[in-house]
Write a structure and sequence with these properties.
Elements lengths: L1 H6 L2 E2 H10 L22 H4 L2 H17 L4 E6 L5 H13 L1 H6 L1 E5 L3 H10 L7 E4 L10 E8 L8 E6 L2 E10 L2 E7 L4 H5 L13 E4 L2 H12 E13 L1 H4 L10 E4 L2 E3 L10 E3 L2 E2 H11 L2 E7 H7 L2 H6 L6 H14 L4 H4 E8 L3 H4 L22
Helix pairs in contact: 4-5, 9-11
């Protein structure tokens, strides 16, 4: 509130940045973020270690394709390190010689989460380097794979509204010590230009989110990679589906103690704020910075392509523990659950034809992408 009183209304992106990342009071940086069944929300690594095992297969196959002695994995936004733990456990168990020569860099800006992650990952401490910022890595320094799971949705985003055929931005102001939303001219020329190459029609009064940080982030990922893959997993759509008029209020929402909260102006610093990812934006930015699209698909199809059914078969016994694991794994990949809610984008840099033969295709087809959500029809 002090910033608004001093300088006037702020963008929603600035509000979100302070609510999530303020050094002392931010949801992620203060240590208040809670993941898992007893927390505010849970992610795929919280569901079952099979998710990390499949990513371990992806990483090992990437190392065969890239074929360099200094293979490095970078995970950004690793939280408490549960996904990194499952990946490293899988690599050590299944691909021990590769594990021995692997370097795993974790980028996590929250000191609280870094401290907890070091405890979770103490068994692999000799393989891990920690960093608090992507920008601390040297350009063209990495041969390997950059992975992120539910990262881009947490970047502070602008909120906009179409009214009378014109794009306005939603700002956050104050009235009698209460937060209010104010429409105004866009704060950045980038907001005005964002939709120029999209063949979209917006309804009057339609609200939407624009994630400008995603462009900067992916551009720097590309600059850090000398040779390798970028794997992005998150919930979202391609632009025609994401910005459909069926979502007149956009997609932003908050999570507090596993409850969906529509009001971002309560529980400030104690709840997550998020919105669906525009994967069309990641594709077009990638094309501009040398990251060529290898595959865009659902999480379910990705897991099927990389052998989730083989992992499922290892829990074939009739005991209660195996049955619980089977249910959890199915939740990761079946349509109607996490399988089609989350999307996977794989991009490659400087791999040429090697990238084209990299991706396996399972005979089991689970993906259900609407015509507006297919890359080939953009």
């Amino acid at each position: 509130m002090a910033l608004i009183r001093q300088s006037g209304p702020i963008t929603f992106a600035k509000f979100m940045e302070l609510a999530l990342y303020h050094p002392e009071h931010g949801y992620y940086t203060s240590g208040k973020a809670k993941l898992g069944k007893m927390g505010d929300y849970y992610t795929s690594p919280c569901v079952h270690p099979a998710f990390g095992e499949i990513l371990g297969r992806f990483i090992y196959r990437a190392s065969e394709v890239i074929d360099v002695p200094d293979f490095t994995v970078i995970e950004m936004g690793a939280g408490k390190g549960f996904l990194a733990l499952d990946i490293l456990d899988s690599l050590k168990r299944n691909y021990s010689p590769f594990y021995d020569r692997l370097t795993f860099i974790i980028i996590e800006q929250s000191p609280h989460l870094r401290d907890e992650g070091k405890g979770v990952l103490k068994g692999h401490a000799h393989k891990i380097r920690w960093a608090d910022s992507l920008f601390s890595l040297q350009k063209e320094s990495i041969n390997g794979a950059f992975i992120s799971n539910e990262l881009v949705d947490s970047f502070p985003f602008h909120r906009c509204k179409f009214k009378d055929g014109k794009l306005f931005e939603i700002f956050v102001g104050l009235h009698d010590d209460s937060f209010i939303e104010i429409l105004g001219e866009p704060s950045s020329s980038e907001l005005k230009a964002y939709f120029q190459n999209y063949d979209l029609q917006f309804e009057d009064g339609q609200e939407l989110e624009v994630n400008l940080i995603a462009r900067e982030w992916l551009s720097y990922v590309a600059s850090v990679l000398s040779l390798g893959f970028a794997l992005t997993i998150d919930y979202g759509f391609l632009a025609p589906e994401l910005y459909s008029s069926v979502r007149m209020k956009g997609t932003f929402r908050c999570f507090h103690q596993h409850r969906l909260i529509e009001n971002p102006y309560i529980n400030i610093g104690e709840q997550d704020i998020t919105a669906d990812v525009d994967f069309s934006n990641l594709v077009r930015v990638g094309n501009q910075v040398g990251l060529n699209t290898v595959k865009y698909t659902t999480q379910g199809q990705f897991l099927a392509d990389w052998g989730i059914l083989e992992v499922l078969e290892t829990y074939s016994s009739s005991d209660a523990s195996s049955e619980k694991s089977r249910i959890a794994i199915k939740n990761l990949f079946l349509p109607g659950l996490m399988g089609d809610r989350f999307k996977v984008l794989i991009q490659a840099k400087n791999l040429g034809d090697r990238a084209r033969v990299f991706y396996p295709e399972s005979p089991l087809k689970l993906s259900y992408l609407k015509p507006s959500d297919r890359l080939s029809e953009r």
